[in-house]
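Structure ticket #2291
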Amino acid sequence: TNSFAADRNWVAPRTEYGYPDLQGLWTNPSQTPLQRPVALGNKSTYTAAEAGQLEQTARALDSARALPLDPDRSAPQSGAEIGGQADHNFEIMPIAVARVDGEFRTSFIVDPPNGRLPYLEGARDIYAEWSDQGFGPYDGPEIRSGQERCLNSGGQLPLLFTFNSIDGDNPLRHIQIVQNESYVVILSEYFSAVRIIRLDAAHIENQGNKWLGDSVGWYEGDSLKVHTKGFRPEQSNSSLRSSAQLEITETFTLGPEDEMLFSYTLSDPKFYSRSVMAEIPLKRMEPGQKLYEYACHEGNYSLPSILRAARIEEISR
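Resolution: structure written out below.
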């Protein structure tokens, strides 16, 4: 149901250390996007009928993906971008609309009220700044994105967003949580990214910025709270622009029926006029399902050829 409404008869399981037991495999199975479609304005929820229509459309698209391709189809147009549809066709399309407290949500962002990221006009991330300085996209390995080089999990942290709402991309939706007395470990299937969260500890200052930042956590009731800062500015991406000033506070709250509510608040004064809050319902993965190693370094392996081609092109001009 993804309701997360208070259930007086439900008691959250505990670990041997008395912490809420979050351990296991979790996934976000919904088609709901991070940002609300602009046309919806401040409409934060769908009616049951509207959500049903969206789910029906997703099922129809999912069925169409399973059909054989037309062997007589024409070649792509010259200069057209070739996407990853072949990969997506082997993935499971998310069908459900995210439901929290009984409401069908139009976006994961719940604040600001318009469900949109409040970007500051003219804000430039590190890639845009390099471009302003005259560097081209193939002038060096550091200018290629961390995601292309498989250096980070596609986002600043796992689960903050998914890519397009109906293109599958399931590895981005899956995590595993392991707990002991002093640490929480969160493994993201996408790029096999590992976060080691220190409990009841202070941030390590003056250590430089890190991929996935520096995370410290603590428990409150049935929830795990995690504060992360010290991100690398290269983690900025098209879905969520950011700088080294980014800070994120996450809350993982257990609920009945193998559910968990993942919420977070982020701030980055370089990019956003105010803080942003999002709520994402998670489901425990079905018995028998598991995470797989996401081995990906094509972008890194291709860099010598990419940069060599750019140098040859420069010489030929």
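Closing remark: The first helix runs from residue 48 to 65.
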